[in-house]
């Protein structure tokens, strides 16, 4: 009896890409078992991969050990399947492309700057790969859809709401980098993956049309998805104050953004759309 994988197309493709590239990386390491081997055409290496531009995206889907590969498969299988069905394949594909590219570019740039400052070649040879950014991005997306959902661990000893998980992911990855089990690239990917995912969903993603608005609304202006909600309560006033400062400086756009349409000047819908744009970060 054939096994049916009940997965939407983008999620299925991501899993196949992840498994294929991870196996390819493992095969190369098996043939050349040097401890410091780097593969610039599979993983993103700051000093070597400029001639392999596809690695800016595809290196996200390369894991170098069986444990991280298993975690990545489970994360994409469950998180990707849920989000793709909730958002449509097109919107999910745009989200994945954003959180694969931007964190890699940020991490690449940071390592290059650190190499330029210190002259330490270790920075320029640090491999950038793995689904770290995608993992925290999927957690952020799930936090938007299920802001009150609670995860219970250790038979009820520990309960966490979904919006707590992205920062917990960042703290865990940072700890593993300090041990060091992960490279310094991992916390950079986790931080930038979280911020990229949140900014995309907060300001850019196109939800279902709003018939009362002058045009389609981009973003999520709800208080439940404000950046401060991802932080513990004692830290929220500082995060909100920082958001207010950025907004006054014009560095933080208002949400949601109304996309102009042919009927944007008709009727009274414009007032309601503009009113929504006044929500505070």
Automatic annotation (TrEMBL):
Protein biosynthesis in keyword set: no
GO biological process: retrograde vesicle-mediated transport, Golgi to endoplasmic reticulum
SUPFAM superfamilies noted in UniProt: Rhomboid-like (SSF144091)
Major localisation: membrane
Membrane topology: Multi-pass membrane protein
Record's signal peptide: 1-26
Pfam families membership: DUF1751 (PF08551)
Record protein name field: Rhomboid protease
